[in-house]
Write a structure and sequence with these properties.
19% of the residues lie in helices and 30% in strands. By secondary structure, it is of the alpha+beta class. Among the domains are: 74 residues, Alpha-Beta Complex (Type Iii Antifreeze Protein Isoform Hplc 12), CATH 3.90.1210.10; 119 residues, no CATH class. The radius of gyration is 45 Å and the shape is rod-shaped.
């Protein structure tokens, strides 16, 4: 009896196993086959890399990217070694071709200047340096403030301010030391801007003539506005002088005639112990 029961149990287990096998095959036939995910090794930064650094093998490492790789990713280290960094790269960040200067251009600030652009350093006031907003990559407007030249002696002297350049990129900011009138070194806030050659001439002309002020703007705000000139009289609410409706009367100018002094001669008169001088007009002077 026990032997018969054991045989039935073994047969039931065999049937169950066969059914499970065919059920699994049937289930797998309806499931799509999983596609293998491709991975690619790309070049990344082994540590933080500062602006203007010339890349060496020690600055590079490799990371594995699953799926699509970033646009402009560098796959071989030799395509990055010897090129200058045009923007700061942080540790573990993929090194893209757009973040590097052209091959052979070297490092430093010059490597970050695109073709056709110029780097122009301008002196700014201490407020800009203390505020600390003039950092590389920021966008600013450039304002000139001063007294316009060519004002006549009868016209009031009024200071004006004008927005001359807009949406200018900041390349660098720092402190330079220049000598004052007494020959002592003094710190001067200097900001380097990326401008066109025409804008560089404008900044060079105004650098020592007027006061330059930088105004921070949103990098996404690329609109160039038509900003009117603002004068000191506008801020104080002074009205412009009204023209008179009646014509001004001409001024009478007195004519000055120079007359030559008459010719004279002097005679010494001696009267005893006293002497005196008498002056007489010559006969020609009386005419």
């Amino acid at each position: 009896m026990a032997r018969r029961l054991l045989t039935i149990l073994i047969a039931a287990l065999a049937v169950a196993g066969i059914c499970a096998f065919f059920a699994a095959r049937l289930f797998n036939s309806y499931m799509p086959a999983a596609k293998p995910v491709a991975s690619t090794k790309i070049i990344a930064a082994s540590g933080d890399i500062k602006l203007g650094t010339v890349l060496t093998a020690s600055n590079l490492t490799t990371i594995e990217i699953i799926g699509s790789i970033p646009k402009g990713a560098i796959l071989k280290p030799e395509n990055a070694i010897g090129r200058g960094v045009a923007a700061e790269i942080y540790q573990g960040e993929p090194i893209l071709d757009s973040r590097l200067a052209s091959s052979g251009s070297g490092g430093g600030l010059a490597a970050t200047i695109p073709t056709g652009m110029r780097a122009c350093a301008v002196k700014v006031d201490d407020v800009v340096g203390v505020a600390g907003f003039a950092t590389p990559g920021m966008r600013v407007d450039v304002l000139f403030s001063g007294v316009p030249p060519g004002i006549g002696s009868g016209a009031p002297v009024t200071a004006v301010s004008k927005t001359v350049l807009q949406y200018i990129q900041v390349l660098s900011a720092g402190t330079d030391y220049q000598k004052d009138a007494e020959g002592k070194a003094r710190p001067v806030q200097v900001v380097t801007l990326m401008v066109t050659p025409e804008q560089a001439e404008t900044l060079s002309l105004a650098n020592n003539q007027v006061k330059i002020q930088l105004v921070l703007r949103n990098p996404l705000d690329t609109k160039i506005n038509d900003v009117p000139v603002t004068g000191l009289n506008t801020l104080l609410g002074e009205a412009a002088p009204l023209a008179s409706s009646t014509p001004a009367k001409p001024m009478k100018v007195a004519r000055i005639v120079h007359v030559a002094a008459p010719e004279t001669y002097t005679v010494d008169v001696i009267n005893g112990t006293k002497s005196s001088k008498e002056r007489f007009v010559s006969p020609e002077g009386k005419q």
